[in-house]
Amino acid sequence: MDPQLHPGAAIITPNHTSFLDPPLIASACWPEDTHFLARATLFKSWYMKWILEHLHSHPVTGSVQDVKTMRLICDLLKKNKKVVIFPEGIRSEDGQMQSVKSGMSMLALRMDCPIIPVYIYGTYEAWPRSSKWPKVGSKIACVFGHPIYPKNFALLNKKQAQEELSKQVQIAIEDLKTWYEAGATGQIPN
Question: What CA–CA distance (Å, rounded) separates 129 from 147?
């Protein structure tokens, strides 16, 4: 992703199927730093802690809607950072996209920053939850969609705005999936 296409703060929202997803997003956004949230328990081993810290991961004990976590995300966004929030909340068990939660929509509306939908392809096949190690040589890809701006939902009440924004993120990721898997021809869907 060319950081110049999306300057400033943004919430990046990819589907989530594998431990490969964060490094794939980080490498796709390079050289711009992206920040991730990770379960605090993942920081217990020294090698995982080292990897996670180099991916600009921040340990969290609660959900995106936890006050401490929200404060951390808001602080990063105020500093014009990009924060990756997996909108499904957890890794998919079967590789299929799960329902999008409203936490990232609430933050985007509160901070008035765009959401950038992302479709990640192939990481489930490369390293599913059931496998201890990734498979070498698997095809993986990361497709960034057009930003979704919270101001487009400003006329709705708070709850409706969160629901509609979450719905649009889900649709955008599914459209990117359809576009990519159909051969990635033509314009990226809006």
Answer: 30
> What CA–CA distance (Å, rounded) separates 35 from 12?
10
Q: What is the pLDDT of residues 68-87, one digit of tens each?
A: 888 889 999 999 999 999 99
Bridge partners for 121 per DSSP: 141
Largest alpha-carbon pair distance within the chain?
49
**Backbone phi and psi for residue 11, each to the nearest 5 degrees, phi listed first:** -105, 120
Strand order in the sheet with 82-84: 57-60, 34-39, 82-84, 10-14, 115-121, 141-144
**DSSP class of 148:** B
For residue 135, count other CB atoms closer than 10 A to its CB: 10
Neighbours of 155 (CB within 10 A): 8
pTM: 0.88
Domain 9-181 has CATH 3.40.720.10: no
Helix locations, 79-116, DSSP H: 103-111
- Side-chain-side CA neighbours of residue 180 (13 Å): 18
How many Cβ atoms from other residues are within 10 Å of residue 181's Cβ? 11
